[in-house]
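User: Quick sanity check before I run a bigger batch. Here is a single chain. Can you write out its predicted 3D structure?
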Amino acid sequence: MPAVLLALFLSGILGVVDAKPLSRIIAEMGLSPEDYQVLSATTSAMLTGGAPSVGQERSWVNEQTGTKGTVRVRDIRGNCVHFQHFVQPAGAAPNPEIRTRQCKDASGNWILTP
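Assistant: Done. Predicted structure follows.
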């Protein structure tokens, strides 16, 4: 997973990310790179499996780490889909909501955007 994508994903965390280094944010969330890959695959499947709709959600589990979560479509504006992510690392309390946005570019590709 490219570090840039992880940085963009994490930049949507409730507006407090800008002051913290990426390594600290990952540690605080308890989200491993492998967890992010499972979360990202779930989000991608929601975008490529037909037109997403507000309220649509999918759960995911990383069998290797035990981390789990839910991705929900919060809003759709123009060519952008706004997501809510609820992540619960194995053996830990759930994290606060994480919000991301993906927009379709001119070629029809979904791009993670700040």
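Residues 3-113 form one domain.

User: Great, the batch can go ahead then.
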